[in-house]
Amino acid sequence: MGFKKDFLWGGATAANQYEGGYDQDGKGLNAIDVLTNGAVDRPRLVTWKKEDGTTGNSPFVWGGDFNIPADATPAILSDYHYPSHHGTDFYHHYKEDIGLMAEMGFKVFRLSISWSRIFPNGDEEEPNETGLNFYKQIFEECHKYHIEPMVTLSHYDTPLALIKRYGGWSDRKLINLFEKYVVTVFKYYKGQVKYWTTFNEINAMTLAPYMGGGLTDPTPQNRAQGAHNQFVASSLAVKAAHRIDPEMKVGQMLAYSPIYPYTCDPADQVEIMKAQQETLFYSDVQVGGRYPEYRLKKYEREGIKLDDRPQDYELLAEYPADFLSFSCYSSSVLTTHANDDHAAGNLGVAGVTNPYLETNAWGWATDPDCLRLALNILWDRYHKPLWVVENGLGWADKLEDDHKIHDDYRIKYLRAAISSMSDAVKIDGVDLMGYTMWSAVDLVSNGTGEMKKRYGLVYVDCNDLGNGTMKRYKKDSFSWYQRVIVSNGADLK
Ligand code: BG6
């Protein structure tokens, strides 16, 4: 299939969706800890409190997701359910789960460190030793089975205290606070962790600025500044990693989906180009090392002025990301023509329905073949090693009476996705480092906060309200993926 001998096969997770133990052993709250569960037809809610004691909630809306009253601050309230508080309890099941990953033959396990487990408010003088020790034990467990951990430093995980105090990443103060956090973990886990990424789906600053950057006032100006601050913080992370341990590699993590024009009208092609620029701007800076002209022009037109320093640009050019990792679940379709057939997608990416593709129960188009396109587009533009760090199929899996889960639809999707990656590698010569499908084990959905929307190879007995035994059961895809890994992608049957 063309995959390298040391191809990094595995699965991915994120602390706020998987770990649980949200207030244990000194962990502070983070952005997602104040988001309730929702459903396909019901948005998640941000709950809040005012100084006079009034409480309430505001729907979380993609694009401009944070609309709580100006005089309120996000808060946990009784009578609401917050799925990040339990996740699927990796906190107490990590040995069992890593054992299951080892059984599948994982070479790599992508997880995130929760910043507020290390610095509960994001700005303490000293880190929380218990938090540091928790991840140390996880990494030790991984190495017991020769599994390489791949760590996201911030997966929708800005400490809530920094959100309340600074309004999130639009404040430059977060750059140095983040630097302190990453230097702490780089030093602590030196020799244990080689692969890192900074911000999960860094372009969430456009699509979901509260999730991506903890922004409480997501104006275009604040989003531009938030992105700039995260770019600088990412370059500082690359610089620190290389200094602390030259073996470390720090990548970008981008949400990338190919976009198709609905018609061959030239106006539709321009629409696609503009939408691509909105995403690729993030990799042009973080991987390419410089602001592209189209973005500078946009800022000029919109009157956006960055609070920047000349040395920011030196850092960006000198310390770009070592590799480009990305999530890709599906494609989307755009048109300038009237079309009311609206589609749904990751991070609220909308557009219109693709008549050639089926959708899942959440309206996301099933397009595993788009991976070849995505890989070629990114490889041609950057010529940096690529890594598919998220890809998979969300489904309402059914646990049968005999404790089996027959997820043949997931096997079908993953089979096609791996074939598509193989074409990109074998036919087109793309340099692909690895594949960490989403998700190794069932976890809470980011978009809807449900348990019902499952992606895992391992089923977890837990419902939307966090009730269940948390027992783990292997799905049919478990042994299928095991065969894929042992054959280095050759056996997809
Ligand atoms: C990605 C995120 O956007 O998509 C994950 O990095 C998320 O956190 C995944 O879970 C799938 O999205 P959803 O909304 O189906 O959970």
Descriptive notes:
The protein is an alpha/beta fold and 493 residues long. 36% of the residues lie in helices and 14% in strands. Helix 13 packs parallel to helix 14. Bound molecules: 6-O-phosphono-beta-D-glucopyranose (BG6). Pfam families: Glyco_hydro_1. Keywords: Glycosidase, Hydrolase. This is 6-phospho-beta-glucosidase. Belongs to the glycosyl hydrolase 1 family.
Which terms summarize this structure?
36% helix, three-stranded antiparallel β-sheet, GH, hydrolase, binds 6-O-phosphono-beta-D-glucopyranose, globular, eight-stranded parallel β-barrel, alpha/beta, 15 helices, TIM Barrel, 493 residues, 14% strand
Topology:
Blueprint (H helix, E strand, L loop, with lengths): L7 E5 L2 H4 L26 E6 L4 E5 L12 E3 L15 H15 L3 E5 L2 H4 L10 H16 L3 E7 L5 H7 L6 H16 L6 E5 L4 H4 L1 H5 L6 H25 L4 E7 L3 E3 L4 H21 L6 H10 L7 H9 L5 E4 L4 E3 L35 H13 L3 E5 L17 H19 L5 E7 L19 E3 L11 E3 L1 H11 L7
Parallel strand pairs: 1-5, 1-13, 5-6, 6-7, 7-8, 8-10, 9-11, 10-12, 12-13
Antiparallel strand pairs: 2-3, 2-4, 14-15
Bound molecules: 6-O-phosphono-beta-D-glucopyranose.
6-O-phosphono-beta-D-glucopyranose binds next to loops.
